[in-house]
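Hi F.,

I've been meaning to write this up properly since the lab meeting, where we talked about keeping a consistent format for the predictions we share between groups. The idea is simple: the sequence comes first, exactly as it goes in, then the structure tokens exactly as they come out, then a line or two of notes. No screenshots and no reformatting. I'm using this chain as the first example so we have something concrete to point to.
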Amino acid sequence: MGQEVNQVVLVKIKRAMDLSFDYVSFITEANLALRLPNLPSNSMGEQFWCIVGARESYLRAMQRGQWGGFSCSLKNSLAKDMVLAKLEDTSLAIMEFLQSATWTPVTVSFLLDLLEHEVQHHGQLIRLAYAGKIGFPKTWSERYTV
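Output, unedited:
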């Protein structure tokens, strides 16, 4: 049963990461600067900066077996091509690690934290999209009924 559960988790994490990529692909570069007006709010680009940083940080934690702090290599969260490249690179790195690693309880814990973090940002992005009247790609409409 363990391998079957691992496969389910792999599908879920890959879907969440693909949805993040799909959304950046869908929006314009100008949309990355969008913030909620009159509220404390990170821009869309800053949401993706945090997603990339979490992916990098949780991957390091899974590899080391312990948390080593948060850092992000994405230098410009307003450059769509850079955001897409980092989303793609981090997704590939995480999937490669997960497919070759022995999953320990620590690995699974960090992986579920990463999944929770990514999906939480999807909720924030949905709020930003509604506020900016941006819309959603088909994959988001199918997954989140937006």
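Notes:
The two ends are 34 Å apart (CA to CA).
Residues 2-144 form a domain with the Four Helix Bundle (Hemerythrin (Met), subunit A) fold (CATH 1.20.120.450).

If this format works for you, I'll send the rest the same way.

G.
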